[in-house]
Amino acid sequence: MTIDAVAFGGDGIARLDGKVIFVPDTVPEEQVRITLIENKGRFARGKVLKRLRLAPYLQQSPCPYSKRCGGCQWLEVPYTHQLAWKQSFIVAAMQRIARWEVPVDFQVLASPEQKAYRNRIKVRLRSHEDGRLELGYYAKGSHELVAIESCWIAASPINEALRRLAQLRLQPQLRTSTYELELQHLAGDRVTAILLSPLAAEFRRSMIDAAAGDPWLREHILWPDTTDAPHLLEEDHGLAYRTFAGQFQQVNLAANRQLRTWVREKVLAAGARRILDVFCGSGNFSLQLAKEGREVWGIEVADVAITCAQENVRSNQLQNAHYAQGFAHQILDRFPELSQGVDCIIVDPPRKGMAEALAPLLQIPAPLLIYISCDPNTLARDLKELMAAGYQVEEGMGVDFFPHSYHVETVLLLKLGVCAKESLS
Length: 425
What we know:
Blueprint: E1 5-6, E2 12-16, E3 19-23, E4 31-39, E5 43-53, H1 79-98, E6 108-109, E7 120-127, E8 133-138, E9 145-147, H2 156-166, E10 177-185, E11 191-195, H3 201-211, H4 215-220, E12 221-222, E13 231-236, E14 239-243, H5 253-269, E15 274-278, H6 287-291, E16 295-300, H7 303-315, E17 321-325, H8 331-334, E18 344-347, H9 355-361, E19 368-373, H10 376-388, E20 391-399, E21 409-416, H11 418-424
Parallel strand pairs: 3-5, 6-20, 11-12, 15-16, 15-18, 16-17, 18-19
Antiparallel strand pairs: 1-2, 2-3, 4-5, 7-8, 7-10, 8-9, 10-11, 13-14, 19-21, 20-21
Helix pairs in contact: 1-10
């Protein structure tokens, strides 16, 4: 088979007599011999038996582990190709599901950095009986540990932490054990280290004791627990953004700043004064609007994120930002003053989209809606409902938060049509 396209999810696509065959670990223009491992009515799935011809545009991977590591998919693919494929994912979903004809100039904004862009990674940490430590990722499709000295897409302080942690020697262990370790780069080149594996308390103490003997680790590594206060993640445009260790935050700070600026400019240009931020997290998109004098209300189901948002309000001395824990259908319970409507709604839902939140949101009149999504397919599904309710897409773009993978963020600016606004009022 010749692979002629790539699907959202990263699988290559081949076609036989009109049937789509999804083939993992392949790229367009590659010729492969495959065996079918699943055969459905409309599609099939294949597995590569032999590569007969490589795609002519492939380049040598800059990462020595990419052939075995289960992480990055496209380190051998030129970045311009990656952006074009991600654009095709968005366009295909919008046209197939939402029936929205995407403008020909719709672009995917490149990540400012394609190397060392991640400020958070999760690795496997293997503790051997003799006290040696190995850190790395599982090989593709297995639990075989690929030990690494550094991760090509991780921030430099994280790689320094990886290198030094791997040099530690613990007391002899009763058995070899494997843990999951999350490392996050904070402001000031500090790094939080969280053992996510259950029953790891004793091992955590031994790690902390061993790390105390390394001056760099002692100065830069934090071993937070649930009682810790939030840590400074970054400072941007006069605001301090804090986070609790382990709390969800975008991993590409530079790309997130690009998107944050875009949202700010669109809201200010529209003259919106009252902003509702749904799935607000710790205030990623709305804190900046409160700083600009806008009245902001935010709702989020995760307790820790709301606690962090409220701390961000307090520490930045913002008087006009109000964050509460709850689901979308509880917005008017938490903020009854919004029953008369707002000027703009910002939504940044999880991957599953906001099917359960659509009906409650449509009860709150808002002439402007900004939808940020990490999955073009669920975005397209929700967009179809929003368009049926009277919203029209004014503009949008993709934003590449995850170079060398199929993941892509999409942001759309929607305005409510005149007829829809009259019927809602």
